[in-house]
Amino acid sequence: MPPNRSGNASFTPTRLSDGKYPVQQATYDDVNGVYTLMVLNTPAGSPPVFRSRDLQMARLTEEQVAAGENTYLSIDDNQPVMYLTEDFRIEYVHNVTENRPNPQTGQQETVIVRQQSSFWAPFAGALAGQAIGSMLFRPQYYVPPVYQPGGVLTGYGGYGNSYSQAVNRYETRYKSPPPVVKNTRSFRTTGSLRKSPAANQATTR
């Protein structure tokens, strides 16, 4: 399970009854590793928005797609898994941060100075033919590849049976931790992670 990653705002994971919920759209925010899914067919009284850090993903099989299955969220014993079509895109919100002194206290804190937005397609392309092969079709944790502005990010930076394993594979590949881990470490060092007033005015797609 992913560690408790702090961000610039409080986070409460969504609780949904065990079941299967079609996904309309999904967003990943690398400030805190939260996935936000817009889902259908939630029980009465439950919101149509599901938020979690502890989200596994898997690709739908060709047989499922041929049978008309689309991307959906499965909840089984409180464990969420999103099953994706090959071309499903997750909106990726990337946060650019800097260490700055707080104007009131003078203490160093990490500030989100800019947000950028792109899309991430974890299972796009001929990934099924790569080394991990059929492992794509069983639930695992995934870390996005290195963020690039514009276009669509395809594939993944790391994967694993645990979140820490996915992060370790990312660090081995890129020789650097993923942004969400950097942000967590910055938060622990400075005790604060907040947006600058201009952060909401510089979103790029």
Describe the protein in words.
This protein is mostly beta strands. The chain is built from three helices and twelve strands; from the N terminus they run ββββαβββββββααβ. The strands form two sheets. Strands 1, 2, 3, 4, 5, 6, 7, 8, 10 and 12 form a ten-stranded mixed β-sheet that branches. A two-stranded antiparallel ribbon has the order 9-11. The protein is globular, with a radius of gyration of 18 Å. The two termini are about 30 Å apart.
What does the secondary structure layout of this molecule look like, with pairings?
Blueprint: E1 19-29, E2 34-39, E3 49-52, E4 56-59, H1 62-66, E5 72-76, E6 79-84, E7 90-101, E8 108-121, E9 141-143, E10 152-154, E11 158-160, H2 163-174, H3 179-190, E12 193-195
Parallel strand pairs: 1-7, 4-6, 8-10, 8-12
Antiparallel strand pairs: 1-2, 1-5, 2-3, 5-6, 7-8, 9-11
What would you say about this model in short?
With 205 residues, this protein is mainly β.
Question: What brief labels describe this structure?
Answer:
mainly beta, 3 helices, ten-stranded mixed beta sheet, 205 residues
Task: Give, in order, the helices and strands.
Answer: EEEEHEEEEEEEHHE
Parts with pLDDT < 50 across at least 5 consecutive residues = 3-9, 201-205
Radius of gyration, taken over Cα atoms and rounded to an integer in Å:
18 Å
The helix tally amounts to 3
Mean pLDDT: 85
Shape annotation: globular
Number of domains: 1
How helical, in percent, are the residues? 10-25%
Distance between the termini: 31 Å
Biggest sheet record: 10 strands, mixed
Q: Structural class, please?
A: mainly beta
Number of strands: 12
Question: What percentage of amino acids are in beta strands?
Answer: 35-45%
